[in-house]
Amino acid sequence: MASWSSLGFQDAASPLMEQLIFFYDYAMLVIILIVTLVGYMMASLFFNKLTNRFLMEGQTIEMIWTILPALILIFIALPSLRLLYLLDEVGSPEITIKVIGHQWYWSYEYSDFLQVSFDSYMLPPNELPDNGFRLLDVDNRTVLPVNAQVRVLISAADVIHSWTVPALGVKADAVPGRLNQVSFAVNRPGLFFGQCSEICGANHSFMPIVIESTSTDAFLNWISSSSD
Amino acid sequence: SLERTRYATCKHYLCYKFNIRVSACFITTRMGLFEKDFSQIPCFRQTFMYSISTGLGAGIVYFLLTSKIRQATHFGVGSYAIVTLGYWAYCRYNFSKEKQRTGQLRKALQHQVAYEGTELESKVKGQ
């Protein structure tokens, strides 16, 4: 999970996030190389004594510095487009949950099985255990089974919110009157935290999301106990 | 390894409640820029091995042939950049292809257990 001074991505907890991190590494190396190269060229200009007052054109160099960046962009664009379409695939989800954003909490509905629905409020500091995570822990976590394809339908009841879990690589706006869909599969057990990502009022910073991914048995036990 | 664990024991209350180890109990971080272990990035090591050695070699050879320091430096840096970009794209493309094949194979093996002894298996084997 993220802690203070974290600048990079959290460890991936879904195949999609792994792919996003792979693409990020790939593109970042290209970008850093370009920046280094241009910086080197600019630095060497400081020590350059060549001048040509009658310079009018340079067809060869213009062709080079047009074609080379175009090639680089193609090499970045192809994996990017592949990932873009991969993110939109919805491959036979096994579970569908509905997430509704309110001011200032999330409510979840599991309608596949018995009707299970609950609200998820942030634990205020005075109710937080000594070893809880401030501003991140909630009273009712969203439990999901590991390695199951999950479809999440996101909407809102009042103003626009945004449901996100960085470790899973998902983020979608919760817009009133609209249904947004995200699909993912959690590939390891654990707790994954997220926070509302669209300004929604006074307590926008105090409506976190916690996904708890467990074994299928534990998930089924939780579902049956929740429906009771 | 470059991993560092910030808390030696589980601090999250869920660990006490359910006696389970959740990944949030151990906040691991990594040394290095952006907590990233660069050696774990696929193709990173090979790319920089080839590009640094090519850049150095090309720069030295150019200097030996022409005795021009500045141009040799330009040539070395240019070769380094071209080899880095070129080999990185080539290596990552192969890595991506291999990863996709491995994923398909893993899925096929998982399904094979379910389809064993059924009509579908005999149909697939017949093909």
Ordered list of secondary-structure elements with their pairings:
The complex is a heterodimer of chains A (228) and B (127).
Chain A: H1 15-46, H2 59-87, E1 95-102, E2 105-110, E3 116-120, E4 142-145, E5 149-156, E6 161-165, E7 170-174, E8 180-185, E9 190-195, E10 208-214, H3 216-227
Parallel strand pairs in A: 1-5, 4-10
Antiparallel strand pairs in A: 1-2, 2-3, 5-8, 6-7, 9-10
Chain B: E1 3-5, H1 13-18, E2 28-30, H2 44-66, H3 69-115, H4 119-126
Helix pairs in contact in B: 2-3
Could you describe the 3D structure shown?
- The complex is a heterodimer of chains A (228) and B (127).
- With 228 residues, chain A is an alpha+beta fold.
- Chain A folds into two domains: 15-88, Helix Hairpins; 95-226, Cupredoxins -  blue copper proteins (Immunoglobulin-like, Sandwich).
- Helices cover 32% and strands 26% of the residues of chain A.
- The radius of gyration of chain A is 24 Å and the shape is elongated.
- Chain B has 127 residues and is mainly alpha-helical.
- A two-stranded antiparallel ribbon of chain B has the order 1-2.
- The model of chain B has no long low-confidence stretch (mean pLDDT 79).
- The radius of gyration of chain B is 25 Å and the shape is elongated.
Strand order of the largest sheet of chain B: 1-2
The gyration radius over C-alpha positions of chain A equals 24 Å
Multimerization status: heterodimer
**Low-confidence segments of chain A:** none
Radius of gyration of chain B: 25 Å
The proportion of strand residues of chain B reads under 5%
Strand arrangement in the largest pleated sheet of chain A:
3-2-1-5-8
Strand and helix order of chain B: EHEHHH
Organism (chain A): Halocaridina rubra
Domain Cytochrome oxidase subunit II copper A binding (chain A): 92-225
Cofactor (chain A): Cu cation
Subcellular location (chain A): Mitochondrion inner membrane
